[in-house]
Amino acid sequence: MFYVPKKALYKTISRRKFLELGGGTAVALGAGSLAVGLGSVITKHPVHAASSMDAKWRQYEGSKLVFMSENTPPSFAIRDNIKSFYDLTGIEVEILTDGLPTVQQKVGIDLRSGQADYQLNYVQDKPIGSPFADFYADLNQFSMDDTLPLDPQGYGDNVWFENYLDACGVYYERGPIRAFPYDCAVSCTFYRQDLFEKLTKDFEADYGYRLEFSDDTTYKNMVDFAAFFKMMHERDSSIPYGYGQHHGSFGWTTQLDIQRHMYAQNQWLDFDVDDTLGSRNPGPSNWGDAQSVKSMEGYKALADVSHPDNLTNGTLELNTVYAAGGVAMQIQYHEFAASIEDPEQSVAAGGKTAYAMGPKGEQSWNVATSNVVNATNCGIGGIGINADASMDLQRAAFIFASWACSHETQLMVLKGVGGTPTRKTVLELPEVKAARNRPTSMPNALTFEAVYDKGIHSPNMVLGPKLPKASEYHEIVRVGTQQCISGELSAQEACESIGDELNAMHGV
């Protein structure tokens, strides 16, 4: 989601070989980029279902597209190698990248204006997809059109990892698909295995059990771990703090962090709605109930023994702190493994970091039942098409979206800059399976057991909520949570405040 690559490696494939593969997948052909202006004009070469694959790829030769995207590994990799797509199709694509809050703002202005200056959008599921779902074309109309160069694997739910298509493509109703999964950021635990092993005797002497992380590690254990490291840091500043939370000024950052923690305890949700679909009218909020207060108390307890810059460290900042040796644990998004395993960027590289599922909920923090899980959440970034673009430009945009989300393109990104695949077939390749073990040329693959084998599957994965007023929701949760952490409000006061504001926002 935020990793800026320093270098990339790419495999070359001939155009003839590409077409032999079925035309639905591609890898990079050399470096370079093409820039085009907004307000593009299309040149169409009509084809029919029986046309050659070459003709289908080139039917919009001469058209120009603009893709507004978050600064993610796939976007950097594809932008640097966009000439391969141009050589295949004759379609020029300008890829503009920025931080997610800025992308959210720019995309929102363009969508609401009807200008369609950005024919292609990076559709991050909650911040962009939820408020703007109605502005995106239904991709079903293209994915079954055999006058287009369709991916031989198809686009159904079965080709993507569990929940991915639902997360970025489905909003409020079944049927329309608003985006294809393009990249993903799934949470898991990064921890300094070297320090855990070095300090376990000291920890065991104080707490009566070993300093080690497993699928059975609970959030209460995390409080113990963090408190121990904080104590050791105060004695010896060369030892890092134990843990850091995600906060900062961007509401979604805090919301994701507290959501994951709350869900681990009794699979608690903000609203009693289908988390996959979301809701335009979610009804009364669960914030302020006894379980939310109990969970918030646990979250505050962990904050009290965490890194002192808790309230200012967003996702990127926290990862930087971890890479610099400032904390021994972080719950982070798996695409960041590439930066952590880079010895030029990280003191935690070289086998010092291990990757595990998120902590399990703490049974003693549950009000009623003991339904605890190793909670995982995510941001699934999709590619969506602006419905206000001309139909010809929409079709040309679909060709790009299909190519960018294909098996071969995703493999190229994984091998080059540490992307995070969304198609299942990528993980089935022998070279990707081998990359799960050190030494590896695909460092993000070190997280795949925690993320793909375990984390993304029910009941561990929490998606939502998807709401039309997603930005307002994220900000309400951010403010209330940070007021509790800072000591301005008690856990009960913070939860009740969040609940009251959410109910007022939805007219409850």
Mean pLDDT rating = 91
Put simply, the count of helices is: 21
What is the CATH fold-level name of the largest domain?
Answer: D-Maltodextrin-Binding Protein, domain 2
Hey, roughly how much beta strand do the residues contain?
5-15%
**Tally of individual domains:** 2
CATH-level-2 architecture of the largest domain: 3-Layer(aba) Sandwich
What is the N-to-C order of secondary-structure elements (H for helix, E for strand)? HHEHHEHEHHHEHHEHHHEHEEHHHHHEHH
Low-confidence stretches: 1-39
Helix- and strand-based class? alpha/beta
Radius of gyration: 23 Å
The geometry reads as globular
Helix content range:
40-55%
Instruction: Give the full name of the CATH homologous superfamily of the largest domain.
Output: Periplasmic binding protein-like II
Distance between the termini: 35 Å
What is the number of E strands? 9
| CATH class category label of the largest domain | Alpha Beta
Main pleated-sheet profile: 9 strands, mixed
Can you give a write-up of this model?
- With 508 residues, the protein is an alpha/beta fold.
- The protein folds into two domains: 235 residues, Periplasmic binding protein-like II (D-Maltodextrin-Binding Protein, domain 2); 173 residues, Periplasmic binding protein-like II (D-Maltodextrin-Binding Protein, domain 2, 3-Layer(aba) Sandwich), CATH 3.40.190.
- Strands 1, 2, 3, 4, 5, 6, 7, 8 and 9 form a nine-stranded mixed sheet that branches.
- Helix 3 crosses helix 16, helix 11 packs across helix 20 and helix 20 packs antiparallel against helix 21.
- The longest helix has 17 residues.
- It is globular and about 75 Å long.
- The N terminus is likely disordered.
